[in-house]
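Hi Y.,

Following your request, here is the sequence exactly as I used it, all 233 residues.
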Amino acid sequence: MKKSKIVVAGIVTACAIGLSAYGLPGDQGSGEGKKTEVKNSVITNKNENVTNLAVGNSKVNSGIEAKGSEISNSVLTNENKNVTNLAVNNSKINSGIEANNSEIKNSVLANKNQNVTNLAVNNSKINSGIEANNSEIKNSVLTNENKNVTNLAVNNSKINSGIEANNSQIKNSVLANKNENVTNLAVGNSKINSGISANNADIKNSVITNENKNVTNLAVGGSTVNSGVNLGD
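Below is the corresponding structure, written out as tokens. Let me know if you'd prefer a different format.
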């Protein structure tokens, strides 16, 4: 497996960005077909004192979904506070930001979950963080914070309360992740990432920071946990 390539050439141009700017329901898109274009825009999502249930074939989205999108010169901010999301059978849940298979340029993606509980159960998944797998991330800032959050997934499991940017091109960018007072359980086929996962990524002129404080991650069954920075298994 190809390892991630990192070239850090002088501490981040990205800081000066300026803001000119599992067979699960609704799982990662292929990136085929017409892409959503988000240009020169501000998208803000906020949920407070909200309970979302789904059951059956499930899905829940209290966050932002922008899979397979072209995002440029834009700001996407997501905040969930005092929120409970339950999904159950075929499951899913996104209380964070999903931007897999996307082009993210000159933009900011900021996610915050505070006092949030996400359950998923059978086929599971859950993302209370940021997913930007198979993406091009250039001159951008991705920040994720989970505080007082509990994520439970169960049978086929998964959970991401951190940042995922596997198989991505990351240039002149900042990825900053913080989990505080967080509990992630997974069980069954398991997985969990409360850190930063950037397997098989090309990372150049960028800064990656990860902080976990008072965090408990349990995986079981198929297991795997990453509360650090994973640049290649």
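The chain has one domain: 5-22+39-230.

Thanks again,
Q.
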